[in-house]
Amino acid sequence: MPTVYGSLRNDFSYKGLSLSVNIVYRLGYVFRRSSTSLAYENIIKTGQHSDYTSRWQKPGDEQTSDVPSLLYPSNPYREIFYQLSETLVEPGDHIRLQDIRLAYDFTPILNKGSRFANLTLFGFANNLGIIWRKNKLGIDPAAGASSSAQYPNPFALSFGLTANF
User: Do the Cβ atoms of 96 and 131 come closer than 8 Å?
Assistant: First the structure.
């Protein structure tokens, strides 16, 4: 849970054009990233995680990797120990470009005989991406870390028209 969080929204306008930008920040927290399974049967079921290639394979690998070797037969307690270890804890601090709204107000250029009292066309983009993150692995902390496939929050784009008669 972030200890410091908030957002900054800036609104800019010029004549009939307006732009609103929302930046959110979450600071002072950590999250547990996913890693490879240490059991062959789980790797077959869930697929290979990128950490799999970094695992200990020969003596001396423990100097350059925190990912344990795979043993046969697998030991479920060994996997639980690794999955809950501190080595998978990463800083979650990040700043994100959350959304942008761009609009144009046609009201000033409508003629007096028009049926519209107000007419505005707008576009809205949400979940545009991370501006800065503290973790060096490029992981999006908001994507969740419960599985080996960390899908980012989806980008959304919408358009609209506001009309008053």
Answer: yes
CB neighbour class for 154 (10 Å; exposed up to 12, middle 13-18, buried from 19): exposed
Q: Give 65: exposed, middle or buried? Use CB within 10 Å, 0-12, 13-18, 19+.
A: middle
Question: pLDDT tens for residues 99-154?
Answer: 999 999 998 888 777 888 899 999 999 999 999 999 988 888 887 655 545 567 78
Regarding whether 116 and 155 lie in a shared domain, the answer is yes
119 and 163 fall within a common domain? yes
Q: Tell me how crowded residue 124 is: count the other CB atoms within 10 A of its CB.
A: 15
Q: Do 96 and 148 have their domain in common?
A: yes
pLDDT at 34: 73
Range of the domain at 101: 1-29+92-165
